[in-house]
Amino acid sequence: MQMPPRCSRAAFLARARCSGLPKCKAPVLKSAHYFYRASPGTIPDRASTLHGAVASQNQHDMISPAPSVPLLRRLPRGRLFLLLSCLLASTAHASLQVYVQDTGGRALVDAVVYAEPIDGPVPKAARGAEIEQKEKRFLPAVTVVQAGTSISFPNRDTVRHHVYSLSPAKVFDLKLYAGDPPNPVTFDKPGTVVIGCNIHDQMAAWIHVVSTPHFGKTDSTGKVRIEGMPSGRYRLKAWHPGLPPGAPPAEQVFNHTGGEASASITLNARMR
Fold it and tell me: I need a labelling partner for 97 at 20 to 30 A (CA). Which of 7, 223, 233, 271 fits?
């Protein structure tokens, strides 16, 4: 193989980067990244990444393709920080904190809050849930899930329970059992499902099924934070078991522009 004349590494790189290369019979290859096979002693053993047009006297002296040094490693620190900040700002999903109160200004506990996207498709989130029976109570008393979620109803009591619902959103019947029932129940339609025990009449719980993965339930301070919400327009809704029977959830249009956002909702609901 015919080898190019020896030259210093600095001179070689300067020649490779310049735009006015001397004319030669062999074609000038303008691929962005190649390893150059130099004569021994011309360039250190570590392969270097070259940028720009590289002239070669022998087509076989070029080995393609060569793995290039990552772009981020070649950027100055200031530009690298700016680039990463822009990428994070464009891809990160923000959160929404909602405060729910009653008409008397008191914080509402266990209020269901959810945001339905107005523009674009509604993503699906595969989540499971559990409502246990313990000390002749359903725990938790209020549950919120996305449509399509399966809920298990384990019995942690020493007595058997018969869990059922006659709500239009989901009718089901788990006959008298102890421990874990054979299969979970899938809630595939949005709406409110009231469940009870056919043996213990005092036992009751609520399942609010929504069409969106952006939901939560207020804590003891009446606040809930919904994470992972992309920017866009939403129908922000709130529901509470203390609402009058048949009352629809409160609703307002919310324009989420990213970052940390907040909202407040007042419900005509009584404390449980």
Answer: 271
In sequence order, what DSSP letters do the residues of 235-267 get, joined into one string? EEEEE-TTSPTTPPPEEEEEEE-SSEEEEEEEE
Cβ neighbour number for residue 43 with a 10 Å cutoff: 17
Provide the greatest CA pair distance for the chain. 96
**For range 204-224, the mean pLDDT:** 97
> Which residues 6+ apart lie within 8 Å of 136 measured at CB?
157, 159, 197, 200, 202, 203
Cβ proximity of 196 and 212 under 8 Å: no
- From residue 81, give the alpha-carbon distance in Å to each of 45, 68, 70, 103, 240: 32, 21, 15, 48, 45
DSSP category for residue 51: -
Rounded to whole angstroms, the Cα distance separating 141 from 18 reads 73
**Residue 58 corresponds to which amino acid?**
N
Which tens digit of pLDDT belongs to each residue from 221-237? 999 999 999 899 999 99
Residues β-bridged to residue 205: 195
pTM: 0.67
